[in-house]
Amino acid sequence: MELSEYIDQIKFQLTGNILENELADDGFKKILEFSLRELNRYYDATALVEVQGKSCIDLTEVEEENNIKISSVSNVYRVDAVGSTSNAVTSSDPMFVAQ
Questions:
Q1: Is the predicted pLDDT of residue 85 greater than 90, yes or no?
Q2: d(C-alpha 38, C-alpha 16), whole Å
């Protein structure tokens, strides 16, 4: 949807095309842009990031490598069993399962 279509829809919802609107389209545009900027702070996208061979995960390295800003971590998966000395991976890939 274009910005002008959003403005038309908002004006229709406010006035029902019956009442007179006192605010110009430029005013609606400023309000809509401000609202979208405010919502952008809360927009979050999920990304699966793989960090290999680390006993302690440093998220600053992950942020720099992937050009992302991490706001939260929801799950951490370990491929090998804790304390396992075997090199063979017997479990499923957790990144694949999480998708």
A1: no
A2: 27
* CA–CA distances in Å: residue 71 to residues 60, 67, 68: 12, 13, 9
Q: What are phi and psi of 67, to 5 degrees?
A: 55, 50
**Under 8 Å between Cβ of 79 and 91:** yes
Per-residue pLDDT tens digits for 56-72: 777 888 788 878 888 77
**CA-to-CA dists, residue 8 to 19, 22, 40, 42, angstroms:** 14, 14, 22, 26
Count of other CB atoms within 10 angstroms of residue 10: 15
Q: What is the pTM of this model?
A: 0.46
Residue 21 has pLDDT above 80, yes or no: yes
CA–CA gap between residue 63 and residue 65 (Å, rounded):
6
Instruction: Centre a 10 Å sphere on the Cβ of residue 28 and count the other Cβ atoms it contains.
Output: 19
